[in-house]
Structure formats: C-alpha cells, structure tokens
Design goal:
Anaerobic sulfatase maturase; about 40% helix; ten-stranded mixed sheet; rSAM; S-adenosyl-L-methionine; Aldolase_TIM; iron
C-alpha cells in the first residue's frame, strides 16, 4: 500500500524521527537544467541531457519530512532552492511548495526560503511571489558587461549581462532584498576594486565572493584560481570597502562572517566552521549527497524514500571524514588565523591534503583580524569594537 492510499484511508503514519542537531538541505528542483552555459560551471548540464523536474509527490514528502526531522527546539526552518537555474521549475512549483510548507509547519515555527538565480528569467510575477513570501534572493553576477558576457554566456553563446540587469532592476522595483554572488578566478584577479565599485553603483548592498570550484567544466576550459590571486582579490575588496567608508552600508559576506566568527566563535557558514557536513543536497529524483561540491559516490547518502529517516541521513553526513577532519590538518594547528578559517572548504583540499587557497585565506584573514585582536572574543568585545568603529566612521 503506498503513501497516497494510507493518507486516503487516514491510517496514521509513523512519526519522523528528529535530528539531534539542526541541518540544512539544498534542493535542486530542476537539477542541472539552466538557460545559461557558464564557461566554468561546477554543475553543468551536459549536451543532450534532459532535465526532469521534481514531481509533486516527492516534493510533498520531502517538505513534510524535512520539517518534521528538525529538532523540536527549532524556531525557523529554511528551504534553499538552487540549480542549475531553479526558476526553470516554474512559478507553479514554488506556489505548491509554499502551500505545503504552511500545511506542515508546526505552530510557532517560521518557514523561510532562499533561492539562487542568474536573474535572467525574473519577471513581475516572480517578484510579487518573492515579496509576498519574503524570499531571500541571491543573484549570480560576475562583473560588468565585459566580464559577465565573457564568462557567463547563454546557451547560444550570447551575453547575459543585460538580462541579469533587468532582473536586478525588477528586484529593486519590488523592494526585494538581494545579494550578488560573484565567482572569483584568475581571469579577474586584478579587477577587484573596479568590480566592487560596479556592484555598488548598481545598487547592490549585499555581496558574496565565491572562489572558483575546480569541478565540472572549469578545468577543461582552462579556469583556475591560485591562492595568491584569491588573497590579492579579497584584500583589494576589503581595502576598497574600508576606503569608501562602507562599514554598515555595504555588507560583504566574506568580511562580515569573519567579524561574526571572531566574536561569537561560531561560523555563519560551513566553509569556515570547525566541522561541516550539516548542509545536504537533494537532486530532483531524490538522490541525497553530503555536500553541494562533493556530489560523487564517496559522499552519496542514498535515495530519499520512506524507509530511511532524514535524521539518519543528516547523522551520516555529519560523521563523514570530509567534515570531521577539515580543521585537524597539521598545518592548521599552529596557524594564527585558524579561529576564523578552520581549514576552509574540503572541496578545495587536494590529494596532498592541502587546501589550495590556504595562503590566500591567510593573507586576507590576517588583515581583517589585526584590528580585532585588541578586543575580547565575546559579546562585550563585539560591543566595544562596534562602538570604536562607529566612532571612527561617524
């Protein structure tokens, strides 16, 4: 007897076991399907590969069980939608998802949604939906017209800059907060300040710089990112941000997270957490992996079904070596920036067990930590630091 029959007969279904700790799950409802063909794509749609959208039955089972599996003390449960290009799933798909979230949300628990898009398919209807339901929107944009069109063409080889800007303008018209996600590689290493100025001129107030992932199409297309260039790029952004007096006005995630981690001793992201493995990924057919950048047989958790509790998948991911050992490498133990680096992303660790961006992180974090070290790593220290910074920039 299947789940639909059980529901029809109103036979009680066994309660979903709760996870011992909160976990997140990044959902790819359309898989690798995308209307762009970025040269360095880490999750490319292969030629001739047909995309298949997550079906309604799986969507409902996933939402119900994902909510039920969170710890009882959870007061907010976040859904993260990504791709490929997740808007290709269609607006009806997300309307159904939102209705199901409300159907299964426990009293007193807030449901939130985040969605990462290239912005080219946005229209007024999408924006009304996102505004109504307070979506957190990330838009992938790599720079000005020259940079964007060179590295993020559409499927026909045309540029994507104009369409992305139209999408950003729509978000601004509907007063939807968004952040820009920017991929950094050797080809833009000397453009950091100009890129930063361009994003600010567009009206962006939340920026996130993502180091190139050496997976998917990037290696064959000749893309790379050296540790020296990563450090040089981020230092240039930091100096431009400070020089323009943008503290409290423009929020660069890479900078803000260092401040937060220094004073709270907790990382806001898995990349620089002492342990990782709490951010799972689900493909549209229900395949589960322990990390978005480690989608391979070694990090495959199994297929979403009614037999294995979500809590078991979350526990299995957290127990994997990639997340357990990330901050235990020998070179990390005596490093002066370990408190905010914690070894970086395991996907950047090579066969030699060395993070290929290590020296870049060291240079960037050292510069950010220098003015912070005078303050205690505590809420009181954060208050003292904020008062000092506000006084110097006021």
């Amino acid at each position: 007897m299947n789940l639909a029959q059980l529901r029809a007969q109103q036979i009680p279904i066994a309660a979903e076991p709760r996870s011992a700790a909160p976990f997140h799950l990044l959902v790819k409802p359309i898989g690798a399907g995308c209307n762009l063909a970025c040269n360095y794509c880490y999750y490319p749609q292969r030629q001739g590969e047909r995309t298949k959208k997550m079906d309604d039955g799986l969507l409902e089972d996933f939402i119900r069980r994902y909510i039920a599996a969170q710890p009882r003390y959870s007061r907010e449960i976040n859904f993260v939608w990504q791709g490929g290009e997740p808007l290709l799933a269609g607006i009806g798909f997300y309307k159904r998802a939102l209705a199901l979230q409300q159907k299964y949300a426990p009293p007193g628990v807030r449901i939130s949604n985040s969605l990462q898009t290239n912005g080219t398919l946005l229209n007024a209807a999408w924006c009304r939906l996102f505004k109504q339901h307070e979506f957190i929107i990330g838009v992938s944009l790599d720079g000005d017209r020259q940079i964007q069109d060179a590295h993020r063409p559409d499927k026909r080889g045309g540029g994507s800059y104009e369409a992305a800007l139209r999408g950003i303008a729509l978000l601004q018209q509907h007063r939807i907060e968004f952040n820009l996600l920017v991929v950094v590689h050797d080809g833009v290493a000397d453009r950091a300040q100009a890129m930063y100025d361009h994003f600010v001129a567009l009206g962006a107030r939340y920026l996130q710089f993502q180091p190139l992932m050496l997976e998917g199409d990037a290696p064959a297309a000749g893309y790379g990112l050296s540790a020296a260039n990563w450090g040089r790029f981020m230092l240039a952004v930091y100096r431009r941000w400070r020089g323009q007096g943008h503290w409290g006005k423009v929020f660069v995630m890479n900078i803000e997270h260092v401040y937060a981690q220094y004073f709270t001793q907790v990382s806001p992201s898995c990349v620089h957490a002492e342990r990782c493995g709490g951010n799972l990924v689900m493909e549209p057919d229900g395949r589960l992996y322990a990390c978005d950048h480690l989608i391979d047989a070694q990090h495959y958790l199994g297929h979403f079904d009614l037999r294995t509790p979500f809590a078991d998948h979350a526990a299995a991911a957290a127990a994997m070596a990639f997340g357990q050992d990330k901050s235990l490498r020998r070179e990390c133990q005596s490093c002066s920036v370990k408190s905010v680096c914690q070894g970086g992303c395991p996907a950047h660790v090579g066969a030699d067990r060395y993070n290929r961006l290590c020296a870049g992180y060291y240079a960037f974090f050292s510069a950010l930590l220098e003015p912070l070290r005078a303050y205690p790593r505590s809420p009181q220290g954060a208050m003292q630091w904020r008062a000092a910074v506000s006084g110097s920039t006021g």
